[in-house]
Amino acid sequence: MTRHSVNVGIDDMSIYIPKLYLPIATLAKVRQIEYDKLNKGLGLTNMAIPDVHEDAATMAANAVAELIDKNHLHPNVIGRIYLGTESGLDGAKPTATYVTSMLHQKYAPIMEANDFL
After folding, report:
1. 106 has a pLDDT exceeding 90
2. To which H or E segment does residue 68 belong?
3. Fewer CB in 10 Å around end: N or C, the chain?
4. What three-state secondary structure class fits 21?
5. CA-closest candidate to residue 51, choices 17, 24, 25, 27
6. Residue 76 carries which DSSP code?
7. What is the pTM of this model?
8. Could you give the CA distance from residue 64 to residue 49 in angstroms, rounded to a whole number?
9. Is the peptide bond between 18 and the residue preceding it cis, with omega within 30 degrees of 0?
10. In this predicted model, what pLDDT tens digit does every residue of 74-105 receive, in sequence order?
């Protein structure tokens, strides 16, 4: 019996954090939350806020594009990408559908079909 070795696992990860920030002191004041609870208790100083053109799908697409570019990958060698979010864009279509569309715009015509889950 021959055994074939297969590489399985996570090769890399990426996150996208919006560039706009709200100082935690401002949030604490407006929400009437004790500043020390947020700053000293949770270690927060700023809170990232999506810009008007950013949502869960654009942030996910930016994170995937960073992985592709950083690792010098050809999009067609990517077998599967997993996307986890609590933020639904609408009630019918998975967020991964929007991400796939954005990546096809950036990497067309070299990008073929990939599995997004």
Report:
1. no
2. helix 56-70
3. N
4. strand
5. 17
6. G
7. 0.72
8. 20
9. no
10. 888 877 777 777 666 666 678 888 888 888 88
- As a whole number of angstroms, the distance between CA 86 and CA 106 comes to 25
Take residue 50 and report the two structure tokens written for it.
Answer: 């999506």
Q: Closest Cα partner for 99 from 80, 75, 79, 116?
A: 116
Structure tokens at 12: 């890399």
* One-letter amino acid of 38: L
Q: Determine the pLDDT at residue 8.
A: 76
Whether the pLDDT of residue 117 is over 60: the answer is: no
Comparing CA positions, the residue from 15, 20, 24 lying closest to residue 51 is 20
CB count in 10 Å sphere of residue 73: 14
9-39 pLDDT, tens digit each: 788 889 999 999 999 999 999 999 999 999 9
